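Following up on my earlier message about adenosine-5'-triphosphate. Here are the inputs again, as you asked, copied directly from the submission form:
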Amino acid sequence: MKLSQGYWQTYKEIPNDAEVPSHQLLLRAGFIQKIAAGIYTYLPFALRVIKKIENIIREEHEKINAHEVQFSIMTPGDLWKETKRWDDMGPQMLKAKDRMNRDLCFSPTNEEAVSDLFRNTVSSYKQLPLNLYQINTKFRDEIRPRFGLLRGREFLMKDAYSFHLSKDCQDKVYDDFYRCYENIFRRCGLEFIIVEADAGAMADSSNKTHEFQVVADTGEDTIVYSSEIKYASNIEKAKTKRINLDFSNDQNLAEVETKGKSTCEDVAELLGVPLTHTLKTIMVTSIVEEEETHNMILILGDDEVNEVKLKSFLKADHIIPTKESVLSELGLVVGYMGPYQLKNSLNIIIDEAVDLSATYITGANKKDYHVKGFSLKELKYEKADLRLSQESDVAEDGKTPIKFRKGIEVGHIFQLGDKYTQSMNIKILDEKGSRQSPSMGCYGIGVTRTMAAAIEQCHDENGIIWPFSIAPFQVHFCLISKTDETKKIANDLYENIKQTGIEIIFDDRKMGPGFKFKDADLLGCPIRLTLGERDFNKTGKLEIKLRKDGDGVAVSPEEVIPALQKIISENK
Ligand code: ATP
Ligand code: MG
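Thanks, got it. Here's what our run produced:
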């Protein structure tokens, strides 16, 4: 493509709301334009990258015998009502009414639509396993759309769904997708970690689920991992341990005045003890099918609650902080709460890191007072792993150190069991002639998020550094020339390079070298070819340079094509 004829421009300013590099660079390098919060127009170069990611996805899905379909962007409310998700999806699902007053929604995901397709087209085990996928627009009315394409409201997702009758088959298909995803992200040229994930509201917690996380400092997810024992988990799900903790065995139960000191940190400082001598009390109301239960959670003073673990332990649809009015009804005093002298029976859950043979400082349920030397042994409680892992933890084996890294979730695979097929009453004939609900798997890749994640991982202060396989063009050809003679040489060379199938963008605009090089760095094509008239007249050579490292090599016009081909094939 010749830039003089292209539809492309770059921008100097960084918009105020663009906090992360991918958002800034996608805007500055002319890939996207914002049209509304979390909604973007993809410009030609963005589409080139998207198509490349899509092609890799299609090739890898074909290898595992997944069939491409395309659902409508809208799905009828009736289907979502069958699975009860019409209400459960909450405000992230954007709903609409048609002129007949029928409910519709902009699909945030497509389990209902694919299950409906399945029940209309499949009746026998002979048609299984079946893998279907689409690459299509999704809409989720995210509460905080941010970071550009990383968390949009409208985004492009590849969503796949599988159907099977036996557990073995479900596991085999899951492994196929697992490997398919490994290949996709490897081919996209990204460094990623596969982590154990939380199944969330989507599925039974016994089903397998993994996330594919692109490693990047700006990632919203925390990955807990140890390469030594090949452990990697999203912090939401991570199981780690604390060791060598200093516990108290103060046997003198007594109330102590702690005026104005309502956090564990303040109380520990006031009393001159380590935080592990204190207990944090958190009151949470869990809601299961509209029924509310108030729970008292006890964790060590320097731990935090992992809400995902807590929600899944309580098997709750939602958890919320217990309302102050309820706390006072229960005789609990905000800032000074604890399991001490409870007037009401409560659902008490103690974190596993709490040593029950120790005694603790905890709220006395009296304003400005705590109690020390308090033993938990007399309480009626359950124990559970509810804390958020800390970087100083060790793995579950009690010895291997773990590390934290930041990641961007680009892919997520789940086993769904028969949750959807049961609720939609889908049955097919098995080998023995009886009717059974098949199990399902679902497998998502954020296509536009992957494009942004690639930039988060691959950029420098001057711009994007695209991995070869997903770059908008492989070669960026800058011409610095004033004379028609050199322009003709460059133009012929450009035509010849294009003929070979190499994807080349030719900067033949009437602009100075500084401007052109800045634009080339910002755009980030992996190879830069430069014809500078002055050098060319002296040496008869052009320069080939990789975007990712600065050293250029001089080549004659005849050597250009083989040299480019060599670099491209080495980076396949
Ligand atoms: P997150 O936890 O980041 O909100 P999710 O777990 O809700 O994502 P899934 O339902 O697993 O997302 O969707 C599959 C994939 O779609 C994700 O792995 C991610 O790559 C992509 N995706 C999800 N939400 C968004 C979004 N708001 N913007 C861009 N991509 C998204
Ligand atoms: Mg997910």
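One observation from looking it over: The chain has three domains: 3-239+405-456, 254-384, 473-570. Hope that helps, and feel free to reply on this thread.
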